[in-house]
Amino acid sequence: MTLITAQKTGITIRLNDTQLGYLAYRFPELDPEDALVQLLERDRIRTIRRADRKVEVLQVQNHTPLVEPEPDIPVPLEPENPIGALQEYCQQKQFPMPIYSFDSVENGFSCTVKALGLSASATAGSKKIAKAEAATMLLEKLGQARVDAVGCDRA
User: Fold this and answer.
1) Is the Cβ–Cβ distance between 102 and 113 less than 8 Å?
2) Do 49 and 8 lie in a common domain?
3) Which CATH number is 95's domain given?
4) How confident is the model over 23-51, as pLDDT tens digits?
5) What is the pLDDT of residue 101?
6) 18 lies in some domain
7) In this predicted structure, which of 42-51, 105-114, 124-133, 146-155 has the lowest mean pLDDT?
8) What are the two backbone dihedrals, phi and then psi, of residue 146, each rounded to the nearest 5 degrees?
9) Is residue 71 domain-resident?
10) Would 155 be classed as within a structural domain?
11) Is residue 105 a contact partner of residue 52, using CB atoms and an 8 Å limit?
12) Do residues 73 and 88 lie in contact, with contact meaning Cβ atoms separated by under 8 Å?
């Protein structure tokens, strides 16, 4: 067992050879004390970020939020670029990106898009138009799903 005292933080920690080896592996340019401080700092920052995502801070006196909650992100029903609008919506809500699949049909192409647990299909003369129409249809379905879920249109 090796005893490390981190003077910057004022803590004393006992580390075995495996733990010292891990610090040397993760931070080869630092001595064990500085490596331990950096490892603890990274973990502290990660923990704070996780807590910030989950906690709503309230004022003690009247229990009103210190920070205004973010409003729901509106679903653009007829965007200029429906493919980009759908991708932006998925990114803002931190969902996986839409998945597009294409099939050849008699008059052109059929495109199916899946995102947010919904899917939509469209057929057009070109892949580009079919993809845009499928994205538009999914955005319309998404807008209708939000109306059904909350009982009124919030977009």
Assistant:
1) no
2) yes
3) 3.30.160.20
4) 888 888 888 778 877 877 888 788 777 77
5) 93
6) yes
7) 146-155
8) -70, -40
9) no
10) no
11) no
12) no
Residue 62 lies in a domain: no
In DSSP terms, which residues pair with 124 in a beta bridge? 109
Residue 104 to residue 146: CA distance in whole angstroms: 32
According to the model, what pLDDT value does residue 75 have? 52
Q: In what order do the strands lie in the sheet with 99-105?
A: 99-105, 108-115, 118-124
pTM for this one? 0.46
126 lies in which domain range?
A: 82-150
What is the number of structural domains in the chain? 2
Q: Are residues 143 and 94 in the same domain?
A: yes
Q: How far apart are CA 57 and CA 77, in angstroms?
A: 34
| 11 bridge partner residues | 6
CB burial of residue 42 (10 Å; 0-12, 13-18, 19+) = exposed
Is 100 within 8 Å of 111 (Cβ atoms)? Answer: yes
Helix (H), strand (E), coil (C) string for 88-144: HHHHHCCCCCCEEEEEEECCEEEEEEEECCEEEEEEECCHHHHHHHHHHHHHHHHHH
Query: Does 86 share its domain with 139?
Result: yes
